[in-house]
Amino acid sequence: MNRVALLIGGNQGDRRRLIEQATVLIQERIGTVAALSSFYETEPWGDFETEGGERKPENFLNQALLVETSLNAHEILCEALSIEAALGRVRPTTSHPRKYHSRPMDIDLIFFNDEVIDTPDLTIPHPRMHLRRFVLEPLAEIMPDYRHPLLKKTVKEMLHEV
Q1: What is the DSSP letter of 55?
Q2: How many structural domains compose the chain?
Q3: What is the per-residue pLDDT across 44-61, written as a single tens digit (0 to 9) for each?
Q4: Residue 148 DSSP SS3
């Protein structure tokens, strides 16, 4: 059985309801939700692109999940993208690659077992997770002692460093 850590959330629509719907779909399509964190609300992070110069984007609501699954990492990615689309996510087709966008649902694969995966469509562990408090706080709640396979630090240690 594989174990995948996911961070789910968004900043459009009824954020809590969308997270709850995503959790149900993850349970149906990916595997058993073994642990989930509290909800965490944070301001948008990074170089955020708004549509038509509109006001500052809404805050994000996020939750971390630990899921037990028979799927491999690429199968999980395909299901995650399908769930995002089912919940209203439309990925921009033309954008600066470093810009972030508002979205009703985002599902990030953070860890997959203790594996390191680096393919054109998937990088695990998530390449910037150790820099993002909004990822580390919910992860520390459900898996504080998990050790990053490349950095060799626990989630709790990485959280103390941001």
Answers
A1: S
A2: 1
A3: 866 555 555 556 778 999
A4: coil
Joined together, the tokens standing for residue 129 give 């997770």
CATH code (residue 133):
3.30.70.560
Alpha-carbon gap, residue 35 to 26, rounded angstroms: 13
Q: How far, CA to CA in Å, does 12 sit from each of 47, 54, 82, 93, 156?
A: 18, 14, 18, 19, 29
Cis peptide leading into 44, omega within 30 of 0? no
Q: What is the pLDDT of residues 114-133, one digit of tens each?
A: 999 999 999 999 999 999 99
Q: Identify the domain containing residue 110 by its residue range.
A: 2-161
105, with CB counted inside 10 A (0-12, 13-18, 19+), is: buried
Measured distance CA(153)–CA(148) in Å, rounded: 5
Answer whether 65's CB lies under 8 Å from 35's CB.
yes
Looking at the DSSP bridge assignments, the partners of residue 3 are 68
Active site residues: 89, 103, 106, 108
